[in-house]
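RECORD TYPE: inverse folding
INPUT: structure tokens
STRUCTURE:
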């Protein structure tokens, strides 16, 4: 199996909005990242996750939704080596990365954008982006051009301190900083949280664009309906367990999921 496959699959299909209904068996058969039966927690003997499963196929977007406190952030942190995994496993391109350290995972090609505190506020935009290539400083110019091509606003704000920017701009910078390292897989924790509706739309569009360039994405979202519209596969977590899983489209139209997790708004989707 080759690890070099930057060609996005079905970009035109995805660009239209909802993810395609059916995934081919072949694509399901070769996930780039698999988390199986993850049990994890912060305090001794208290498990926040009680056996969670997530699977990300290459070049796809997997969405994790669910109520507040379900364990969504914990699951992403556990996969990124920030919360100890007590049992279960995480595999990336077939390698066991269970409890690997975050910096090792960055070097392997995984990027993580936390929900909060995801930029260095006293540093400028450019300095923040430079932090993203600290493992490969020679790559800075090439990656900088790529990232500002995606987020032109960052070029306009190049010398501005991150702390003085709007929430939407900071979110772009946070994603941009992680993308500087050229990850194959990106974890995003609630990228649209706290943003104005216009900025939320922009962030969802940018996530689709990032995905179409060949980056596989796992995103946690409070905006569940919007998330399911752009993700290929969705995982509903509830109380530290998987409650539902399916394609984004299946979950969007699943009556139980609608009633329990999406609210009445979803019925008009
Ligand atoms: N740093 C922490 N220490 C102890 N418990 C935590 C910590 N962070 C989160 N929790 C607990 O873990 C559970 C799941 O939290 P979280 O993963 O943040 O949920 P979600 O992201 O789905 O809203 C909650 O009960 C929360 O109180
Ligand atoms: Mg969270």
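DESIGNED SEQUENCE:
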């Amino acid at each position: 199996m080759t690890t070099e496959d930057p060609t996005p699959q079905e970009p035109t299909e995805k660009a239209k909005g909802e993810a395609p209904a059916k995934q081919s068996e072949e694509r399901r058969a070769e996930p780039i990242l698999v988390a199986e039966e993850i049990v994890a927690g912060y305090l001794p003997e208290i498990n926040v996750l009680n056996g969670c499963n997530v699977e990300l196929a290459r070049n796809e977007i997997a969405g994790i939704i669910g109520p507040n406190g379900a364990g969504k952030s914990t699951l992403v942190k556990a996969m990124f080596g920030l919360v100890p995994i007590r049992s279960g496993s995480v595999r990336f391109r077939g390698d066991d990365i269970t409890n690997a350290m975050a910096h090792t995972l960055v070097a392997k090609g995984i990027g993580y954008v936390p929900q909060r505190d995801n930029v260095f506020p006293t540093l400028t935009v450019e300095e923040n982006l430079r932090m993203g290539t600290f493992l490969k400083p020679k790559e800075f110019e090439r990656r900088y051009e790529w990232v500002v091509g995606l987020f032109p606003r960052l070029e306009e704000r190049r010398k501005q301190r991150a702390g003085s920017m709007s929430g939407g701009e900071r979110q772009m910078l946070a994603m941009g900083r992680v993308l500087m390292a050229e990850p194959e897989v990106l974890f995003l924790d609630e990228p649209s949280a706290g943003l104005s509706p216009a900025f939320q739309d922009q962030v969802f569009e940018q996530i689709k664009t990032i995905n179409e360039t060949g980056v596989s994405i796992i995103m946690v979202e409070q905006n569940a309906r919007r998330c399911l519209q752009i993700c290929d596969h969705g995982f509903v977590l509830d109380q530290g367990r998987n409650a539902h899983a399916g394609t984004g489209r299946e979950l969007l139209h699943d009556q139980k999921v609608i009633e329990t997790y999406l609210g009445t708004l979803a019925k008009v989707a």
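NOTES: The pocket of adenosine-5'-diphosphate (ligand 1) is lined by residues 42-43, 48, 66, 68-74 (CB under 6 Å).
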